[in-house]
Structure formats: structure tokens, C-alpha cells
Amino acid sequence: MEITEYNVRQDWREYDINVKKQSLKLWNQTQAVIICVTILVLVISLLQPNWFGWGVLRPITPPIIYLIYVFYITSKKKLSRNDITIFSRQVLLGLRYQVWGYNLLIGIISGGTLGLDFVLLAYLNYQSFAVPYTRYPIFDFGFFLFHIILRALGEEFLLRGIGYSSLYEGAEKSYIRTSTQIVVFNLIMYSVQIIRYIPDPLFIWIILFRLGYAYLAFYIRYQRQSIIPCIASNFVFNSLISFVLPW
Predict the structure, then answer these.
(1) Are 144 and 130 in contact (CB under 8 A)?
(2) Residues 6+ apart with CB under 8 A from 237
(3) What separation, in Å, do the N-terminal and C-terminal C-alpha atoms of the chain show?
(4) Residue 181 CA to its chain's centroid (Å)
(5) What is the pLDDT of residues 57-105, one digit of tens each?
(6) Full-model pTM
(7) Cα(126)–Cα(99) distance, rounded to whole angstroms?
């Protein structure tokens, strides 16, 4: 009986070590993807800003690559490997659907409140306001929605999905360490847009509100244990601030 109990404990200890190791490996891969995509977009934007079609491709390239990576990680073949059996697809991405209507409402209210605050700040203090789809209304509005949806899905599945699950739930990092790493990499993602506004008087406010949103989304993920309100919050927040920071 004692031998059996020891073997069970030993097996569980080895399993726990393996979960933490593979979780950190997954997070390291995710960090590498974010850094490489950010550098790629920044280099092209700085060296070839007028490259044919880049004005359209620039805002959608990062989220498309992120979603391709997420699809690869969560594909049936990948999840069936011995080193990625630590999470189901739903748990890895944070797709928990309990009280989904309430989760959506929380996301809409939180993202809307923060986004509206930024719009009012920019307009009342700097008279900065722009409609992001005025050149060709139907096409631009459709592309605007497409871009915002891609961004919401790409950012949230990558950071509050894979990032949160691998760091907080898999590697069992503390709340502070997990939130700090995810917020930092969220800002790295945003640097593609932020760097374009360095001369703008709103520059500091852009960083502060981006930082505020990154932590708000993490806190919502932690409290609700679901990525659904994060996606809703991201969509509403980015939709609103696009009236000040057009794509």
C-alpha cells in the first residue's frame, strides 16, 4: 500500500514538473512570435512606409499571424502530442461559456468606459477626433470592423488565452508575475501603433490608456476565468479609440 502510494505521488510530481516545463516552453514560443512580428512590422513601417498596399496590410498583418499561430498550437495534431496534453483546447484559450451574456456585458461596459474616457480626453483637451472610415465609407467601414475583430481575437487568444493559461494555470506563476509579463507583451504589440504618435501631444496618454487596458483585460480574465469578456472589451475599446487614432 505504501509502495503504491509512493509511486502515485512520484508520478504526480513528475507530471506536475512536466506541466510547468511545457507551459513555460509554450509561453517562450509565444513571446518569440510577438517579438518577431512586432520587429517585422516596425522595420517595414520605418523603411518602406509607402510600400504598395502596406497602408492596408499594416493593421491586419500582426493579428492574422497571431491567429495562424493560435490555430497551429490548438490544432488537433498539436494537442495530441505528449508535450501539449496539459490543456484542452477550451481551457488553453480560456473558452469558458458560463453566463456568457453577463461576461459579454462586463466586457462591453469595461472596454466602453475606458475607450470613451480616452475619446473625451483627446477631444476636449486636444481637439483630436477622426472618423476612421470616411474615404470610401462602405469599404472602409467594412475593413475597419474586419481589422478590429481580427485584433480582438488575435490579441486575446494569444495573451489572455495561451499566455494566461500557460503562465498562471500551467507554470503556476503568481498573479503579479503573470500580469506583469502579459501587460508588457501587450504593450510590445501596441508599439506598432504607438511609435507613429511619438510627436503627438497625446503620446503619453496613448501609452497610459494602452497600459490601463492591458491590465484591465488581464484582471477581467482573472476574475471571470473566461476570455469572452476580454474579446468584447478589446473590440469596444479599440473601436472607440480608433476615432482618435485612425488605422
Answers:
(1) no
(2) 111, 112, 114, 115, 213
(3) 66
(4) 12
(5) 888 889 999 999 998 888 854 554 444 445 667 777 787 766 778 889 9
(6) 0.85
(7) 40
